[in-house]
Amino acid sequence: MNNDINFKNGNYAKKKSYFLRRLIKLSLIVFSLAALIFLVFFIFSKISSNTISIRDIKKAWEQYDYEKVYDLSSKYLQKDSYNNSALTYYGYACFFLSQSQTDTQTAQQYLDESINKMRIALYSANSKLKPQLEYMLGRAYFFKNTITSYYYADLAVKYINLAKEDGFISPDIPKLLGLSYASLGMTMESIASFSEALLEDESDFLLLSIAEQYYNAKELNISEQYLFRIVQNSDNEDIILKSRILLGNIYIEKESYEEAMEEFNKALELNPESADAHYAIGLIYEKQGNIVKARAEWRTALKLMPSHQLSRAKLSES
Question: SS3 for 248-315, per residue?
Answer without folding.
Answer: HHHHHHCCCHHHHHHHHHHHHHHCCCCHHHHHHHHHHHHHCCCHHHHHHHHHHHHHHCCCCHHHHHHH
